[in-house]
Amino acid sequence: MKVTGSELLAFDRCPEFRRNLWEKRRQKQHSESEAQALGKWAHEILANMMKGISPGQLELPWFSQLAKARALRLALLAWWDRYSVSTPWSEVILVEEPLTAQIRTGRPPEWAGDVILQGIPDAMVLWQGALWHCQHKTLDQSQSVENFACSVAQSLHESIYAILAKNRWPELRYGGTMLNIVRKMSEGAMLENASRALWLEFLPIGDRQIERAKDDILWMVDHFDEPWRRRSGCVEVGRGKCPYYEACWEGISLSDDSIYEDAIPDERYVGYVVRSNA
Ligand code: SF4
Question: Which of 111, 97, 213 lies closest to 153, judged by CA?
Answer without folding.
Answer: 213
